[in-house]
Amino acid sequence: MKTVRIEKVTDTVREMCMEVNYQLSSDMCKVFENARSTEVSPLGRQILDQLAQNLEIASKDRIPICQDTGMAVVFLEIGQDVHFEGGSLEDAVNEGVRMGYVDGYLRKSVVRDPLIRENTGDNTPAVIHYRIVPGDKVKITVAPKGFGSENMSRVFMLKPADGMEGVKNAVLTAVKDAGPNACPPMVVGVGIGGTFEKCALMAKQALTRPAGSHSAVPYVKEMEEELLERINRTGIGPGGLGGSTTALAVNINTYPTHIAGLPVAVNICCHVNRHTVREL
Amino acid sequence: MDRKISVPLSAEDAASLRAGDYVYLTGTIYTARDAAHKRMQEALDAGHSLPFDVRGNVIYYMGPSPAREGRPIGSAGPTTASRMDKYTPALLDLGLLGMVGKGRRSPAVREAVIRNHAVYFAAVGGAGALLSKSIKAAEVIAYEDLGTEAIRKLWVEDFPVIVCMDAQGTDLYETAAESFRREE
């Protein structure tokens, strides 16, 4: 049994919220720089250069990369031999988000009720996903999600007969519909299988997998590569103003599903694709 | 074509811009996004006047992050324009001449842009830190309770935008993507 003080969780989440909003993660840096060297459109290159300048300023001056600093999505993988001491874990995460967003000059974008729409003033609550795993570690992933791209995300409840082509078409449809709205170049997270909610969660988790890495399942890896290439043939380009860089990565996660179904979720993200991981 | 233009816009400048022009705006513009548009529409419905005279003006669809000490504003990039489509034709018909945002517009907005010889600019989405450097001052002028969604008057200098829809209704999002499409 390992004891983790709840304040440690709060401090860690606070720091992660700030870091992830000022600094592009190293995996995203790599795929972004790669795109700058391959983009064929002059305007597209100019836009990628602006985004590169933007990243420099954000990191140097600690100004958020984007004014939409997102709704904080937090994944907690908790070892089953961990004991938390000092208060409620959920409260500790939300306190970390509150402190990070207030102290870090991050935008407060959360409304208390989806229809009454009064801003909570501190960007809480976060959306928290818990998973209990073997061991005595706590793995925290913070992935604030902006809504320009979140609004363009989709769930398709396909039929088994739709098969592989149906899945590819669903992803391409979501990307084309998103077009310039999702601040391309995008990162595309896809969840295939499970149930209605499971595929959506997988799509979100897929976004937190390092860009440029691939699924361990050979056919899924092939699909990731093929879809990335096909998305980059749509012509949408940087900023949606034309070019050969529409997506920087396609990450697909899969899960067993029901004999009658083929759920597919497509979670679209912008070129920043904020995600950061720490272990306690 | 690269152009430097002062804002508020003159009718001549607005009508002469063409989709694809790279434009630097200098002068004053106003921010408004979802909640502020809803309130402006409610004001119009109730027969009240708007918090600022939209004639000749440019609305920037933007809700900034908080400013650090000594800075006029935080990160300040465009938000998705289509969420304002429902409210936009009425504002254009009242004399609004320009909008800055990102993403596609509805057919109704396009018709109103043509009808009023207005212009829709895109700023680069996701470049909020860079764009904040072209904003020299900011002042909340209405709906302060809306926080980031309040209406702000911004003083901008060489604020970089691209003409996405011109007074003739040409839509750069359609034409530009088409020219780079390589699908079978």
Describe the structure.
The complex is a heterodimer of chains A (280) and B (184). Chain A is of the alpha/beta class and 280 residues long. Chain A folds into two domains: 2-19 and 65-144, 2-Layer Sandwich (Dihydrodipicolinate Reductase, domain 2); 147-274. In chain A, helix 1 (6-22) runs parallel beside helix 4 (89-103) and helix 6 packs parallel to helix 8 (218-232). Chain A has helices at residues 6-22, 26-38, 42-61, 89-103, 147-150, 163-178, 196-208, 218-232, and strands at residues 2-5, 73-79, 82-85, 127-133, 138-142, 154-158, 186-194, 247-257, 262-269, 276-279. Chain A has a four-stranded mixed sheet. Chain A starts with a strand and ends with a strand. Chain A is globular. Chain B is α/β, with parallel strands linked by helices. Chain B has a single domain, classed as Fe-S hydro-lyase, tartrate dehydratase beta-type, catalytic domain (fumarase, Alpha-Beta Barrel), CATH 3.20.130. In chain B, 25% of the residues lie in helices and 27% in strands. Chain B has helices at residues 11-16, 34-45, 88-93, 107-115, 128-132, 172-179, and strands at 2-7, 22-31, 58-60, 98-101, 119-122, 135-142, 151-165. In chain B, strands 2-3-4-5-7 form a five-stranded mixed barrel. The longest helix of chain B is centred in the first third of the chain and has 12 residues, at 34-45. In chain B, 51% of the residues are buried. The mean pLDDT of chain B is 96.
Most extensive interface, chain pair and sizes: A-B, 50 and 47 residues
CATH topology of chain B: fumarase
> How many beta strands in the DSSP annotation of chain A?
10
Return the domain count of chain B: 1
Enumerate how many helices of chain B there are, as a single number.
6
